[in-house]
Amino acid sequence: MNVQVLRVMFFLVIPALWSYLPSISAFWPEKYVPVLDSDSLTLHCDSYTSNVQWMVPSNECLSQSLHSSTLLLSDISYHCTGLYTCLTMDEVQVTSTHVLIRDSDNEHLNISCFMDSYSSPVLQCSAYIPISGDRLVRAKANISSAANTTWLEMKFTDNNKESLVRFNLSVPKWCPYEEQENPIVVTVEAMTDSQYMHGQRAYYIRDIVVPGAPEHVIVNKTSGSWKYPSTWAKPSSFFPLLFQVHLQYKDHSEGLVLQNRMMMSFTNVKCMRVRCRDMYYNSSWSVWASPVIRSRCSFKNDITK
Ligand SMILES: *[C@@H]1O[C@H](CO)[C@@H](O)[C@H](O)[C@H]1NC(C)=O
Ligand SMILES: *[C@@H]1O[C@H](CO)[C@@H](O)[C@H](O)[C@H]1NC(C)=O
Ligand SMILES: *[C@@H]1O[C@H](CO)[C@@H](O)[C@H](O)[C@H]1NC(C)=O
Ligand SMILES: *[C@@H]1O[C@H](CO)[C@@H](O)[C@H](O)[C@H]1NC(C)=O
Ligand SMILES: *[C@@H]1O[C@H](CO)[C@@H](O)[C@H](O)[C@H]1NC(C)=O
Ligand SMILES: *[C@@H]1O[C@H](CO)[C@@H](O)[C@H](O)[C@H]1NC(C)=O
């Protein structure tokens, strides 16, 4: 066989082998280009020699030779997504780019985050990633004053069908005593071997603080008491909480009481439960601390709405 025949075989055989290899890399690729369905794209191979060759996942979006320093892809569809690699004639890799179809209908990914305290080092987040197959997800939280934050990378296999992804992001350093001037921007990206998704949400921490439930709840016949959640920012004089106490009386009637102290006195109470929120800023209520039950009871949840 002469060299030319070998080259032809190289281009016929390698792309076929390529598709049997694991379709998505273990790490988020360094170079990737999301395009919209039916877009065009030009890939450049900046080699010291103009004598180059491309390894492509499919010829479907190409109408040119694979021996050119620029490669024009047109009318891109899912058939031509994948890894485009440029090699010199002696097979040294010059560049390698993932071409992916961007899903423009999913720019939000239902990103939802909260913090259990102003001083918490983590944002607890979830995102809805409506794609299946092997997929990579990465997320980060950045704030303009601290530009350098690293990505949290996650990998899911086809066996994991769960679309809701939960993750904790470390929060860029900021001072909980000061008014937050710039929002924290949470960015989530996801990809398979052919698809790409992107979502972003901006948050002021005061809007997403949800305290943990009150702790050490104790009830006797005449009073109930509780303590601040241990995760809450200290000192509590600077970050006071407001408590809501839900009482059920012996005659089965119920009542709600707002309380800023950590105890209250009562009579004829059968059950009590308590939750909390920031006193100065209308944060969400915490979940209820487990009800303290002295005899069988269940609360009417609708009175707390
Ligand atoms: C995304 O969030 C919106 C609004 O919060 C909700 O109506 C919708 O059901 C969510 N979608 C999914 C798939 O969770
Ligand atoms: C935060 O990260 C996003 C996504 O990488 C980037 O577009 C944005 O410019 C960053 N913002 C700041 C303030 O660093
Ligand atoms: C961000 O971090 C990377 C690696 O940790 C570093 O190479 C880069 O210089 C940093 N950029 C800034 C603006 O601090
Ligand atoms: C996030 O952090 C919280 C508290 O630090 C922890 O309870 C939770 O399990 C963590 N979630 C994930 C997905 O790691
Ligand atoms: C109930 O608890 C409070 C505070 O812990 C205590 O002062 C009170 O004496 C107790 N009452 C009874 C009847 O045990
Ligand atoms: C908090 O909510 C209450 C009742 O919903 C309202 O009266 C009050 O003005 C709100 N305060 C702030 C700071 O938004």
Textual characterization of the structure:
Residues 22-97 form the Ig-like domain. This protein has helices spanning 3-18, 205-208, and strands spanning 32-35, 41-44, 52-55, 70-73, 82-88, 93-102, 112-114, 122-128, 135-142, 152-156, 164-170, 184-191, 195-203, 215-219, 223-227, 241-249, 254-259, 263-265, 269-278, 292-293. It is mainly β. Strands 1, 3, 5, 6, 9, 10, 12 and 13 form an 8-stranded mixed beta sheet that branches. A hairpin with a 3-residue loop joins strand 14 (215-219) and strand 15 (223-227). The protein is elongated, with a radius of gyration of 29 Å. One 2-acetamido-2-deoxy-beta-D-glucopyranose (NAG) binds next to loops.
Series of secondary-structure elements, N-terminal to C-terminal? HEEEEEEEEEEEEEHEEEEEEE
- Sketch the major β-sheet: 8 strands, mixed
Low-confidence stretches: 3-22
State mean pLDDT (0 to 100 scale): 85
Ligands, deduplicated: 2-acetamido-2-deoxy-beta-D-glucopyranose
Overall 3D geometry? elongated
Coarse structural class: mainly beta
Q: What is the helix content?
A: under 10%
Output the radius of gyration: 29 Å
In percent terms, what proportion of residues is strand? 35-45%
The total of helices stands at: 2
Protein name: Ig-like domain-containing protein
InterPro entries: FN3_sf (IPR036116), Ig-like_dom (IPR007110), Ig-like_dom_sf (IPR036179), Ig-like_fold (IPR013783), IL-12 (IPR050676)
Keywords: Disulfide bond, Glycoprotein, Immunoglobulin domain, Signal
